[in-house]
Amino acid sequence: MTKAEQALETRERILTAACEVIADIGFEHVSMRKVAEHAGVSKALLHYHFDTREKLFAEAMTHSFAKTGTDTGSDSDADPAAVVLARIVNSMLPTDEELRQDWKLWQELWVRALRDGTARHLAVDLYDQLHAWVGGTVERGVASGEFTDCDVAALGTLVLALCDGLGIRLMLEDPRVDLATARSTVWRAIAPSLGIAPDFPEV
């Protein structure tokens, strides 16, 4: 392994550890020492890659988003747009342990974004990427004739708003909202605009 490869591997390990620690105890309780210990690196090496907690947090959020925020399956271009959109909805909800960890990070970001301009810009940028992700899939479905023509931007806003609201209820383990209810609620809300069946597809 070259020095450059080793540095990338170390950076990846630190970011993974930071995501896990922040999700576990919250950013306000995170110290650089705790992240370094969890990553199995020295505090000096951690500071070499990330000189402040704030930079580490921002990079951890981006890292987490890059890992789970673009996964729509192994061959999404060949799959029906409705199936890909359903996978996107799935990934925007806390449907497994990895996504529950991501949700905890998002919740930390929301809190910080209320008080910190840098965190607010990061949150808006990540939402822009989510809008583009949803919008690109909808546009593909419209172009292929699978979806009826619609206001793509408005539909993207609706999907994100529903997933945020229902996702919080799932994270709180609200007995009124389970995963099946969350999925069907999103799908029934967007199906009329897309001209598709209101039943959530098999993904």
UniProtKB/TrEMBL annotation:
Residues 8-68 form the HTH tetR-type domain. It comes from the Bacteria. InterPro entries: BetI_C (IPR039538), Homeodomain-like_sf (IPR009057), HTH-type_TetR-like_transc_reg (IPR050109), HTH_TetR (IPR001647), Tet_transcr_reg_TetR-rel_C_sf (IPR036271). The keyword Flavoprotein does not apply. Residues 31-50 bind DNA. Signal peptide: none annotated. It holds the Pfam family TetR_C_6. The keyword Repressor applies. Keywords: DNA-binding, Repressor, Transcription, Transcription regulation. Gene3D superfamilies: Tetracycline Repressor, domain 2. PANTHER family: HTH-TYPE TRANSCRIPTIONAL REGULATOR BETI, HTH-TYPE TRANSCRIPTIONAL REGULATOR RUTR. This is TetR/AcrR family transcriptional regulator. It comes from Streptomyces caledonius.
